[in-house]
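Input structure tokens:
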């Protein structure tokens, strides 16, 4: 039985569904407990895992590939990196210098990327994030949104995890994009509650406008059979550039409930999101909802 399915975010290619289950389920149960729900058992929670699809075959190192600023040449990656830089400066103007106005030609790209990575390293949000890991995040997001084969294989992993017992899907970071698209593609699923955390779904052009199904007239499709959608993020989350999703996805009758939470400077990490009482309340409400 998997009443709750959690879809992880970027950067988990060296993990697995069982190794993620312990920290994810523990944090989720803490959030439920803080919301007054203590009846859920760990076995009711499953992790839909797709990280292995981004793990290079035959890599001897357990760490990230040795990316440098010279590996960031795709316009998608450069634009997202510059947007993160601008958001980090907005949140910490005393720490992070403002983005320089530069072009994105091949001649200027390495220097522009290098400046962006240096600026982001001064942000408390990215302070302990190595450049190679940050570049890996950019590449995973781009691959999912631009490579149909990658998208298909990721979606297949989610479909294999959702069962007739699943009522709530929780999607973190890229996992929120994956969850949203899966629910749109499967209106026959019994899932009636979607909880998105640290979601990049609303980033214009790069994410929102690349969703399947494609948004129309600036409005995204409502996800399948979902009756309740709660979106949670920290105001300091640089990845969740668009903090409010309701203006982009409400269909006139159903709305996205946008909630800001405080995760300290672990603004994007999944565990602090899951331990929040607000997240526990949204999941608990979904579990109590009649099929």
């Amino acid at each position: 039985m998997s009443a709750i399915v959690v879809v992880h975010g970027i950067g988990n290619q060296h993990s697995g569904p069982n190794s993620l289950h312990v920290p994810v389920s523990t944090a989720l149960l803490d959030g439920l407990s803080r919301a007054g729900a203590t009846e859920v058992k760990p076995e009711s929670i499953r992790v839909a895992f797709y990280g292995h699809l981004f793990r290079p075959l035959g890599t001897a190192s357990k760490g990230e590939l040795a990316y440098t600023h010279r590996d960031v040449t795709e316009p998608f990656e450069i634009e997202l990196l510059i947007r993160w830089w601008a958001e980090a400066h907005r949140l910490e103007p005393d720490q992070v210098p403002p983005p320089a106005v530069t072009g994105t030609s091949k001649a200027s790209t390495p220097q522009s990327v290098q400046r962006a990575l240096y600026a982001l390293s001064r942000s408390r949000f990215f302070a302990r994030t190595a450049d190679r890991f940050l570049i890996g995040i950019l590449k995973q997001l781009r691959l999912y949104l631009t490579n149909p084969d990658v998208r298909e294989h990721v979606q297949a992993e989610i479909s294999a995890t959702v069962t007739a017992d699943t009522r709530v899907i929780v999607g973190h970071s890229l996992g929120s994009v994956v969850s949203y698209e899966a629910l749109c593609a499967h209106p026959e699923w019994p899932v009636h509650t979607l909880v998105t955390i640290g979601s990049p779904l609303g980033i214009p052009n790069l994410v929102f406008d690349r969703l399947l199904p494609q948004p129309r007239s600036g409005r995204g499709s409502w996800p399948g059979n979902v009756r309740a959608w709660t979106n949670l993020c920290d105001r300091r989350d640089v990845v969740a550039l668009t903090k409010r999703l309701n203006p982009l996805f409400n269909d006139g009758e159903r709305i996205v409930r946008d909630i800001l939470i405080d995760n300290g400077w672990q603004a994007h990490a999944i565990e602090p999101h899951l331990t929040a009482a607000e997240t526990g309340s949204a999941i608990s409400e979904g579990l109590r909802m009649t099929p």
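The first strand starts at residue 4 and ends at 7. Residues 102-108 have pLDDT under 50 and may be disordered.
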